[in-house]
Design a protein that fits this description.
By secondary structure, the protein is mainly α. 81% of the residues lie in helices and 0% in strands. It is built from 4 helices and no strands. The chain has helices at residues 3-16, 20-29, 37-57, 60-84. Helix 1 (3-16) runs parallel beside helix 4 (60-84). The longest helix is centred in the last third of the chain and has 25 residues, at 60-84. It is elongated.
């Protein structure tokens, strides 16, 4: 694998997994009062645009890691909605 591609994947993976600790905490505590849904909507929009940008450039590291981030962002929004109702 090309060194540049490897760096792109590493950067994308680290960025993409950054929301996982928050997701785990939210699932474990079942409390969403400390989570800003607006932040995750903005992050979702940004990551979706990054995916589109990656598609335009045909760059797999950008597409794959940001697609994973989009899924994490949507999960956070869903969990936030679910646990803020209680």
């Amino acid at each position: 694998m090309d060194k540049t591609l490897l760096i792109g994947f590493a950067a994308g993976v680290l960025t993409a997994i950054s929301t996982i600790p928050q997701i785990i905490k939210l699932i474990r505590d079942k409390k969403a009062q400390d989570v800003s849904p607006v932040m995750y909507f903005v992050l979702l929009a940004g990551n979706a645009l990054w995916c589109y940008y990656g598609l335009l450039l045909d760059e797999l590291p950008i597409i794959a890691t940001n697609a994973f981030s989009v899924v994490c962002d949507m999960l956070m929004i869903i969990l936030n909605y679910r646990y803020s109702k209680k």
